[in-house]
């Protein structure tokens, strides 16, 4: 019977070695108020894969806690473009109550719920003599499409630089990574009578603002 003789090399050494490759097209997860992604949650717009970089607690506190506008105070004025590209100033609404609500971004689930809830109760706001104004970092064309799609009867303003959000001291959420959802009610004299913050129950903003307006 013939015998099989193997060379001294071990079998694994005869096999080609391969170094696992890291996929080059993986993306970092980011939280951005744009329309570039399909995964959305209450103002979050997420790209796929990888890890989230969280700012330090100190920097988060620095950027997200200290409110500049307080109840009983007069907030900084502003002039911003609306969904039709026209300049709108806060002073335009003096002489009547105004609800100014800051929200993270157009077309996100939470923001859409909130916008439609304001729409559905708009007649109640009108009956109270109040105007409703929504503000986010989206541009006027985004606001126009958003307002048209959901038949929003009120003004949406573009704070693309987020300067007004900062001047009013709107607190951010998720360690400063998510633009905050905060509503202000100003009386006829432009004095703040209510500040309401609730990121994850957007429709509660309507209940709280109407309750306050009906007591003025």
TrEMBL record:
Residues 1-31 are annotated as: Disordered. Its EC number is 1.11.1.24. Residues 1-16 have a biased composition (Low complexity). PROSITE patterns: THIOREDOXIN_2. This is Peroxiredoxin Q, chloroplastic. Residues 69-216 form the Thioredoxin domain. GO terms for cellular component: chloroplast thylakoid lumen; chloroplast thylakoid membrane. One of its GO terms (biological process) is cell redox homeostasis. Keywords: Antioxidant, Chloroplast, Disulfide bond, Oxidoreductase, Peroxidase, Plastid, Redox-active center, Thylakoid, Transit peptide. Its main location: plastid. It catalyses: a hydroperoxide + [thioredoxin]-dithiol = an alcohol + [thioredoxin]-disulfide + H2O. Residues 17-31 have a biased composition (Polar residues). Pfam families: AhpC-TSA. It comes from the Eukaryota. CDD domains: PRX_BCP. InterPro entries: AhpC/TSA, Peroxiredoxin_BCP/PrxQ, Thioredoxin-like_sf, Thioredoxin_domain. GO terms for molecular function: thioredoxin peroxidase activity. The lineage of its organism: Eukaryota, Viridiplantae, Streptophyta, Embryophyta, Tracheophyta. It is found in: Plastid, Chloroplast thylakoid lumen. Belongs to the peroxiredoxin family. BCP/PrxQ subfamily.
């Amino acid at each position: 019977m013939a015998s099989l003789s193997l060379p001294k090399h071990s079998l694994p050494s005869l096999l080609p070695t391969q170094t696992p490759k890291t996929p080059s097209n993986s993306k970092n997860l980011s939280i951005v108020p744009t329309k570039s992604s399909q995964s959305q949650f209450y103002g979050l717009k997420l790209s796929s894969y990888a890890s989230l970089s969280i700012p330090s607690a100190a920097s988060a506190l620095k950027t997200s806690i200290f409110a500049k506008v307080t109840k009983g105070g007069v907030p900084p004025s502003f002039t911003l473009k609306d969904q039709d590209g026209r300049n709108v100033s806060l002073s335009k609404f003096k002489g009547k109550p105004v609800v100014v609500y800051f929200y993270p971004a157009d077309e996100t689930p939470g923001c859409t719920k909130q916008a439609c809830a304001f729409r559905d109760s708009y007649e109640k706001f009108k009956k109270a003599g109040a105007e409703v104004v929504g503000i986010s970092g989206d541009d006027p064309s985004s606001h126009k499409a958003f307002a048209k799609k959901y038949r929003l009867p009120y003004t949406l303003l573009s704070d693309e630089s987020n300067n007004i959000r900062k001047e009013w001291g709107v607190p951010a959420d998720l360690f400063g990574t998510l633009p905050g959802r905060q509503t202000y009610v100003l009386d006829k004299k432009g004095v703040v009578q209510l500040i309401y913050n609730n990121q994850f129950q957007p429709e509660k903003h309507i209940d709280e603002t109407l309750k306050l307006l009906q007591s003025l």
